[in-house]
Amino acid sequence: MLFNYNAITNTGEKKTGNVEAASKDLAVGAIQRRGLIITSISEDEGKKGLFNFSFRKNISSKDVVIMSRQISTLFEAQVSALKAFNLLATNTENQALVRVLNNVSEDIQSGLSISMSLAKHPDVFSDFYVNMVKSGEESGKLTQVFSYLADYLDRQYQLTSKTKNALIYPSFVMGVFFIVMVMMFVFIVPKLAVMIKESGQVVPVSTAVVMWFSDFLIKYGLFLIVAIVIFALYVYRLTKTEKGQKYLDTLKIQTPVFKNIYSKLYLSRIADNMDTMLSSGIPIIRAIEITAAVVGNRVFEDILKESMEAVKSGSSFSDALARHPEIPAIMAGMVRVGEETGSMGSILKTLGHFYNREVNDAVDTMVSLIEPMMIVALGLGVGLLLTSILSPIYNIAGGIN
């Protein structure tokens, strides 16, 4: 929940702002830790109701990428952390991000570290992001860390966006085709079916099927729509459960058309995450744990968690990965080389670039194949429908002549 407050400092200066907290008591405690004396506090009414959007829905990955790049630039210019976040807050158009940056700057001013301040906003800054910043504070490489984060988030954003955008065009075309076909079955085919029945001629099997389906849509179309909506809601609710999410994630990496893209997408994310964290000095067990939390697929998350436990028990990371068929032999083998040569970071970086290229190539191939396949499929569908309906009409016309 978001709470708005009015407060004064020890010197009597008035302050206004907002704080995100699970309850009013926690909000009061967070404000008091900033050294402020509260005069009034109330829950933001705009955060209530049916349309209750969180920061995650208002702040895009691209916003965080740009912010990270700007922080890195400001740190390179020897600007202090407090001033950097204040500058970003005054020069950011996204009001949701402005509120977050103001809260972060206030926390820094009250004595908290940057990583602790960012950790208060888990919907915006992931565990991976916070731990990277923490490692930068400990190693004195904050500038480089924010630069790494910007590069990493930008790569992931571009890769994910390209994968999603590849499916938008075919989905739109198929949706329009479906609507047009339904309208033909409901409004056009019934009128033609009356002519065909009145002619008394023998109806071909394909025509009979088309006429039956048209009649079914007219009589039971509403029930079919309700059934589809109920099924969609059931699937949606199912995907919100642990079992449902794992099933959906398994489906992504096993469906013949998409498994090549999704598997390599998650493998590139694993390699990229591990490389970025190990290069920043984060211990390997912690790096595996964080990567498991942000990989975005329950199957690979379980693989990484099992691998983490195996590493804790004394196994090598490469041997732990090799036990799972979802991990390609080349990846486990290269990780083994990295362990033996002490160059795990550079090996993982190479793997990350390799799988990034593989995903890009797979998406490009899919996009180049989708259009001709879709044209052929749509052409066959329309052709069969027209042939089934028009051939009896031609027979009627021929009989009249």
Overall outline:
extended
The largest sheet, given as strand count, sense and whether it forms a barrel, is: 3 strands, antiparallel
CATH H-tier superfamily of the largest domain: Type II secretion system (T2SS), domain F
Q: Distance N terminus to C terminus? A: 78 Å
Second rung of CATH, namely the architecture of the largest domain: Up-down Bundle
- Order of secondary-structure elements: EEHEHHHHHHHHHHHHHHH
What do we call the CATH topology of the largest domain?
Receptor-associated Protein
Strand order of the largest sheet: 2-1-3
Number of helices: 16
Strand portion, in percent?
A: 5-15%
How many beta-strand runs?
A: 3
Q: Give the rounded overall mean pLDDT.
A: 82
Tell me the radius of gyration: 29 Å
Structural class: mainly alpha
**Helical content band:** over 70%
Identify the CATH class of the largest domain: Mainly Alpha
- Number of structural units classed as domains: 3
Fold and architecture overview:
The protein is mainly α. It folds into three domains: 2-47; 59-125, no CATH class; 159-401, Type II secretion system (T2SS), domain F (Receptor-associated Protein, Up-down Bundle), CATH 1.20.81.30. It is built from 16 helices and three strands. Strands 2-1-3 form a three-stranded antiparallel sheet. A hairpin with a 5-residue loop joins strand 1 (2-8) and strand 2. Helix 7 (127-139) packs antiparallel against helix 8, helix 11 (259-279) packs antiparallel against helix 16 and helix 15 (329-341) runs antiparallel to helix 16. The relative contact order is 0.07.
